[in-house]
Design goal:
four-stranded mixed sheet, about 25% helix
């Protein structure tokens, strides 16, 4: 940083003070999902937290897992994120998973695409912003209680450019 940058930084942060411990928020707010100007709470699942990872199978019985890996659950809904910006995709994924769960769907598909290579990027480097971001979004506190697991499906459903997701049953 140059001296000018340092002076600007000092000037900008001159009035910033650390909050006292008593002024900090101690409790976590209840989970709320915003959907079409309505705020709906996921009260049934608020105490359940689980972090699905690509291919994790901790909460699934063997027969369901076998059927899921063979793609025997028909894709009941799909979301294609081609052409979406990261912010648009984030909102779309959250709305899609929440509405699919509320409608009682079990298997859904999100097409992220494989990503385009950047001219200055190494050909072996990971690419595709949405391909990397969507699995992280699926592990968020808002979505993970609705998801059992997710994997990359076979080539006929999109291969590594898609995510095949098994949702929990809504009981």
């Amino acid at each position: 940083m140059s001296e000018d940058d340092d002076m600007v930084w000092q000037e900008a942060t001159a009035n910033v003070r650390k909050l006292k411990q008593a002024n900090r928020i101690q409790e976590k707010p209840q989970k709320k999902v915003r959907l079409k100007n309505e705020t709906q709470e996921i009260s049934v699942l608020k105490n359940f937290h689980h972090e699905p990872d690509l291919g994790t199978t901790a909460d699934i019985d063997k027969q369901t897992l076998r059927r899921f890996k063979r793609e025997e659950f028909g894709v009941e809904a799909s979301l294609d994120l081609h052409g979406f910006t990261s912010d648009q995709a984030f909102d779309a994924v959250h709305r899609f998973i929440f509405s699919s769960f509320c409608q009682g769907k079990r298997a859904v598909l999100i097409v992220t695409g494989k990503g385009l290579p950047h001219p200055e990027q190494d050909i072996f480097e990971a690419r595709g912003v949405l391909k990397q971001s969507v699995p992280e979004w699926l592990k968020s506190e808002e979505l993970s209680p609705m998801i059992l697991t997710f994997i990359h499906p076979s080539a006929k459903l999109g291969g590594s450019g898609a995510l095949y997701i098994l949702l929990r049953r809504k009981r």
